[in-house]
Amino acid sequence: xxxxxxxxxxxxxxxxxxxxxxxxxxxxxxxxxxxxxxxxxxxxxxxxxxxxxxxxxxxxxxxxxxxxxxxxxxxxxxxxxxxxxxxxxxxxxxxxxxxxxxxxxxxxxxxxxxxxxxxxxxxxxxxxxxxxxxxxxxxxxxxxxxxxxxxxxxxxxxxxxxxxxxxxxxxxxxxxxxxxxxxxxxxxxxxxxxxxxxxxxxxxxxxxxxxxxxxxxxxxxxxxxxxxxxxxxxxxxxxxxxxxxxxxxxxxxxxxxxxxxxxxxxxxxxxxxxxxxxxxxxxxxxxxxxxxxxxxxxxxxxxxxxxxxxxxxxxxxxxxxxxxxxxxxxxxxxxxxxxxxxxxxxxxxxxxxxxxxxxxxxxxxxxxxxxxxxxxxxxxxxxxxxxxxxxxxxxxxxxxxxxxxxxxxxxxxxxxxxxxxxxxxxxxxxxxxxxxxxxxxxxxxxxxxxxxxxxxxxxxxxxxxxxxxxxxxxxxxxxxxxxxxxxxxxxxxxxxxxxxxxxxxxxxxxxxxxxxxxxxxxxxxxxxxxxxxxxxxxxxxxxxxxxxxxxxxxxxxxxxxxxxxxxxxxxxxxxxxxxxxxxxxxxxxxxxxxxxxxxxxxxxxxxxxxxxxxxxxxxxxxxxxxxxxxxxxxxxxxxxxxxxxxxxxxxxxxxxxxxxxxxxxxxxxxxxxxxxxxxxxxxxxxxxxxxxxxxxxxxxxxxxxxxxxxxxxxxxxxxxxxxxxxxxxxxxxxxxxxxxxxxxxxxxxxxxxxxxxxxxxxxxxxxxxxxxxxxxxxxxxxxxxxxxxxxxxxxxxxxxxxxxxxxxxxxxxxxxxxxxxxxxxxxxxxxxxxxxxxxxxxxxxxxxxxxxxxxxxxxxxxxxxxxxxxxxxxxxxxxxxxxxxxxxxxxxxxxxxxxxxxxxxxxxxxxxxxxxxxxxxxxxxxxxxxxxxxxxxxxxxxxxxxxxxxxxxxxxxxxxxxxxxxxxxxxxxxxxxxxx
Length: 980
What we know:
Blueprint: H1 5-9, H2 14-24, H3 29-36, H4 58-70, E1 76-77, H5 90-97, H6 100-103, H7 115-132, E2 136-137, H8 144-159, E3 165-169, H9 174-187, E4 190-194, E5 208-213, E6 219-220, H10 224-232, E7 236-241, E8 259-263, E9 279-283, E10 296-300, E11 306-310, H11 317-320, H12 333-371, E12 380-381, E13 384-388, H13 393-402, E14 405-406, E15 408-411, E16 414-418, H14 425-438, H15 467-471, H16 508-521, H17 542-545, H18 551-554, H19 566-583, E17 587-589, H20 595-612, E18 620-624, H21 629-637, E19 641-645, H22 655-664, E20 669-675, H23 687-696, E21 700-704, E22 724-726, E23 747-749, H24 784-817, E24 836-839, H25 841-847, H26 851-860, E25 867-868, E26 875-878, H27 886-907, H28 925-929, H29 939-943, H30 962-967
Parallel strand pairs: 1-14, 3-4, 3-5, 5-7, 7-8, 18-19, 18-20, 20-21
Antiparallel strand pairs: 2-9, 6-12, 8-9, 10-11, 13-16, 15-16, 17-23, 22-23, 24-26, 25-26
Organism: Microbacterium gilvum
InterPro entries: GcvP (IPR003437), GDC-P_C (IPR049316), GDC-P_N (IPR049315), GDC_P (IPR020581), PyrdxlP-dep_Trfase (IPR015424), PyrdxlP-dep_Trfase_major (IPR015421), PyrdxlP-dep_Trfase_small (IPR015422)
Pfam family, one: GcvP2_C
């Protein structure tokens, strides 16, 4: 291999893996793999032709990425359609997006060690709720289009029965319409498009309506009458709003909206060819328990101090399964944090100034175009103008492109221009010149004239004009045209961002320190091991992360012309080819922007395949009882009926029960969903029998790719009988979890399902399919360079070595801990896959110490807890990953053994059941230092149980009262007095 990026990525050395194998009980490292991986699958498609065997060095990978980036042309993107050119404050880019304390964190399921990002997400919720004018926002969605779908589903649940009609604004974003169409068809929802702004009547019966505010055309109008009419018809009003426009416009909540959705991209988040961006949803009082996704709430800790945690967790898919209201298991936390901090940094005055600047530049441009004699309509606007140029639209767009600006070619007669925060006067000058040339318009005043009215001498370098300069009309002699002022009834009078957090961090110094203070409260991979089973918290290499902030990747509009995105298309095609090769499939779509969306896309492909063959009755999806909770939720949202298949005592799919379920649903069988290796952390020995049985009955096999980390280089899903799978690039392929997003969940399929994979009306590369499942053609394309670099640097040999190292590490941990905690499931040879489940139920029975006690005590030892009570209640699922070195593995094992001994002291009566280091964990500095110490164990035992003084992690709060937070639901920034 090349100078060995794999050796940087994999924590254990070859010699250490040999010693680990000896402790496991095998002759060598190869022996561990031979015992763990069943002979029936070993070597099935282990090698591929598309992916190079050897990786390249980090420098070589960056050089290749530079070549790809150079094939993307960075133009000023004025296309709009929900994506805007924005400016990421450097303090946020450096201290959030490029900071491993933020991007290597996990979802905040352990709130005591997640207080920093929970506070940041509460800022996000408060920001969204304030601007939208409704009380309860969630902690982000995947993008605007999928948020609109979830808004539609909230409306349907709120109405409960009656009509299946959902109205869609004719002026909604086109990609939102397309995603709604795909999702509605699977659920039996009838979409009816209505020109709401034009006064077209609503259907007599409906359960809800989506209003775009402002419209995709740029039109600003008052939808209150439509909202009222929807309510009279018994429906719920969903408003898709522009978050920045709401700084100037009356909030949707004040106009009667029930649900508000949208994207926070223009709050400092790079375009990234479509993502990742944080969508949002906010609801009226009474709908908070219908809200999908995650919700950050306020509670208190064991000392009564204010603390944050995820609220209403009963909605999580792992618990509700087929009764789940959504399959959104990933949010876009890192991007939500960026958007929230953009608002914190700028504050209400700054956000309003940016909005006024955008609107003023748009008004200025409209005046210049009017001077050219062009028709820009009479409607009020915020940032978008549609210009009529009969039969000349393509010529105008081409002229603008030659001038370095991208416009929206609406149709043969119409061009759209959308102004963003980063739009300069030079950009506007180029737009005017394009219209003058392409439309053959006149050359009256305006920018570039020499009569003094439009002098641009101070603007030649592309700097922005001040709002004041634009408002005074110094750049144009054109009068303000009818309809350009905002309607009086839509001028915002409500305050927003009034919490002190949005006015306390104006200087860069203050902002930097605030971000550092929050990061210090959290536990991320830059502190130590995160041994979460099922989640693969591996190294996210700095080299792989480097390219995402290059403008050639970060400043590309998702609907840019094909000729400007050659580098992206080449990278995407290469990555799709590598993933197809590694998994044994024929086609891959990178569009799904979360694992849950990949699941849905795979199931929709199966549904489309059956329907194309006339098998309309095939709607039963078999799912083992051990499966990820998202599996069942995705199946329901794909229009399928879930039938649960039992697992045997070894954790494998019960073959007899599977055959019985297949027999009883033979004519209706659509699919089986299984995870391989299984969610129980073992390789199913009967996997070929399982997939053959389903195929024999006419069904399709969906193999959940969540555990591909334990298979690469040894076997491929397509060779195990899989027809379709989703992959988790944020797990196996090293995209950071980012505190709970970004994620990428591509879907891979055999040739017969390929025609039913996602497609997109604005995709730069042609592909047949069912339509989009995400807003952008290639989903979260902005982070694909990470996985591209990971695969390129590892090569097939490195990826295989990573699998081997992960499996050896898991078996090493299981072997060392087995005499202290039973390992619940193993394969036929007594080995686990890449993770192991430790059974803590005997510990609870013997000592009274619960799985929660062990998880919280691990914090005192300096660890994030493993996955708690999934897939089996009362257990811990441990996945060490290949990235951890032997010293860190041993540190974790030693901590677990020490905790077992502490539990023994509780059982022996040395420490009381209710007052011991485990029951009281985690211990904060204040709890150890302030006041009298009345516990039967020492302060040192409380806070330095491992003796590690120098590397001590101090949790900011003690154990949090989860129930209190649900009984007293608070989901916005509490007043300062609450911290007293």
